[in-house]
């Protein structure tokens, strides 16, 4: 019996050992099967090209010229020759003031002129007779001098009446008809037909309408003193208007997503506002279709640096760690490494990297969320993002 028990006990030990070995093998196979392969990521080297930093400012469109239409003469408004808000050309007839009173005044001035000329003719003839009488000693020299004086007074009276006729003709033919002094868009009429219009040069004259020039049109904005110094320095310090004159700029409206309208800087103010620490700049834009209206807001983009060569990567390749920005690069051993970078602007769809990256780095541009610093990854090479047509043209120009 003891021998049987011993055999049974040994068999049990062998079975237990076998079970332990089988369990160990199973766990090893499970662990080996559970180990995932290195994640696959897409890498690319940065794009290297010349870029220009861009500054953006909010501003407002203003008319190049604006004129308040007012009458030089007083009278009752007889006709209006335009539709509110229409485009007008220089010389177009806008308003007509009742011309009849001015015609009457002109006729009266012409009659006064005729009378003055008749008086002049008499004094001329009288002076001619006086010359013969003086030669014959019939009249005194004093009488002759009086006739000479009368002729000169008559000549002055004729000149004065001619000037008054000319003024009456201006009132009738020029000032009673108000014409557009320039091309532009006219606003609504401020006075209806039949109302008395007060003319003249004082401050109590009647405003009839306003005309603003819309093509070309100006865009005014302000920028800070630091930006002004930066513009001045990278322009060499000897350019007019802080080196801004003639610089190409672009603007976008509040309902647009890109800067599609191009223009040029034409003015920078000569003083910095002491209350705000800003200086006023101005650009001019062509406006043939009348899209821009004085008073309209927009956002202007101004070159903020001289051209420089830098590295660019897709913006999706940039990660954030609190306040710092980083990218993951894959080294020669296939391990993801962390690099902190200094970002610049978005240029033609790519992010400018000002510091922290080398041109030979293989940056993870797809699969950033699957990789971790120090992790083994499987890198798939991708061709660097090509510069767009816009960038290529800019690089060619540079």
Would you write up a description of this structure?
The chain has 398 residues and is an alpha+beta fold. The protein folds into three domains: 40-53 and 309-397, Beta Barrel (conserved putative lor/sdh protein from methanococcus maripaludis s2 fold); 55-64 and 214-303, Beta Barrel (Elongation Factor Tu (Ef-tu), domain 3), CATH 2.40.30.170; 99-175. Helix content is 31%, strand content 33%. It has five helices and 23 strands. The chain has helices at residues 2-34, 100-135, 141-175, 225-234, 389-397, and strands at residues 40-44, 47-51, 54-63, 66-70, 75-80, 87-88, 93-97, 177-179, 184-186, 196-197, 207-212, 217-224, 248-252, 261-268, 278-285, 297-303, 308-314, 319-321, 324-330, 336-347, 350-355, 363-366, 378-381. The strands form five sheets. A six-stranded antiparallel beta sheet has the order 2-17-21-20-19-18, with helices on one face. The protein has a six-stranded antiparallel barrel with strand order 3-12-15-14-13-16. A hairpin with a 2-residue loop joins strand 20 (336-347) and strand 21 (350-355). Helix 2 (100-135) runs antiparallel to helix 3. The model is unreliable at 1-7, 237-243 and 386-398 (pLDDT under 50).
Pattern of helices and strands: HEEEEEEEHHEEEEEHEEEEEEEEEEEH
Instruction: Give helix % range.
Output: 25-40%
The Cα radius of gyration reads 45 Å
Largest sheet: 6 strands, antiparallel
Query: What gap, in angstroms, lies between the N and C termini?
Result: 104 Å
Tell me the domain tally.
3
Decide which structural class fits the backbone. Answer: alpha+beta
Give me the number of helical elements: 5
The average pLDDT value, as a whole number, equals: 84
CATH topology heading of the largest domain = conserved putative lor/sdh protein from methanococcus maripaludis s2 fold
Strand content: 25-35%
- Going across the biggest sheet, name each strand in turn: 2-17-21-20-19-18
The quaternary state of the protein chains shown equals single chain
Compute the number of strand runs.
23
Low-pLDDT regions: 1-7, 237-243, 386-398
**Which CATH architecture of the largest domain is right?**
Beta Barrel
User: CATH top level of the largest domain?
Assistant: Mainly Beta
Instruction: Sum up the overall morphology in one term.
Output: rod-shaped
């Amino acid at each position: 019996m003891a021998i049987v028990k011993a055999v049974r006990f040994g068999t049990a030990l062998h079975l237990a050992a076998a079970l332990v070995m089988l369990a160990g093998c199973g766990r090893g196979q499970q662990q080996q099967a559970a180990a995932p392969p290195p994640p696959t990521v897409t890498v690319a080297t940065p794009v290297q090209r010349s870029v220009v930093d861009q500054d953006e400012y909010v501003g407002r469109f203003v008319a190049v010229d604006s004129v308040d239409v007012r009458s030089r003469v007083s009278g009752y408004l007889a006709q209006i020759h335009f539709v509110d808000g229409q485009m007008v050309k220089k010389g177009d007839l806008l308003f007509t003031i009742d011309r009849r009173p001015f015609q009457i005044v002109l006729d009266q001035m012409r009659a006064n002129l005729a009378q003055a000329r008749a008086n002049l003719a008499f004094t001329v003839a009288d002076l001619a007779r006086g010359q013969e009488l003086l030669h014959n000693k019939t009249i005194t020299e004093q009488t002759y001098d009086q006739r000479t004086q009368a002729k000169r007074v008559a000549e002055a009276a004729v000149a004065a009446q001619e000037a008054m006729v000319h003024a009456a003709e201006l009132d009738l033919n020029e000032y009673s008809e108000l014409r557009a002094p320039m091309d532009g868009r006219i606003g609504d009429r401020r006075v209806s037909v039949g109302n008395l219009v007060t003319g003249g040069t004082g401050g109590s004259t009647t405003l009839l309408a306003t005309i603003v020039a819309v093509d070309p049109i100006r865009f005014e904005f302000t920028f800070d003193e630091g930006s002004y110094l930066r513009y001045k320095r990278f322009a060499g310090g000897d350019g007019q208007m802080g080196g801004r004159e003639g610089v190409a700029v672009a603007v976008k409206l509040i309902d647009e997503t890109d800067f599609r309208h191009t223009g040029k800087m034409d003015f920078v103010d000569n003083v910095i506002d002491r209350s705000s620490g800003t200086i006023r700049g101005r650009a001019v834009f062509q406006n043939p279709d009348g899209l821009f209206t004085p008073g309209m807001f927009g956002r202007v983009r101004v070159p903020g640096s001289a051209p420089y060569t830098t590295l660019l990567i897709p913006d999706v390749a940039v990660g954030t760690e609190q306040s710092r920005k980083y990218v993951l690069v894959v080294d020669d051993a296939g391990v993801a490494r962390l690099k902190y970078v200094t970002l610049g602007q978005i240029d033609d769809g790519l992010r400018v990297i000002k510091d922290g990256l080398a041109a030979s780095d293989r940056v993870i541009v797809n699969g950033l969320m699957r990789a971790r610093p120090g992790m083994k990854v499987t890198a798939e090479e991708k061709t660097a993002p090509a510069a767009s047509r816009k960038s290529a043209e800019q690089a060619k120009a540079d």
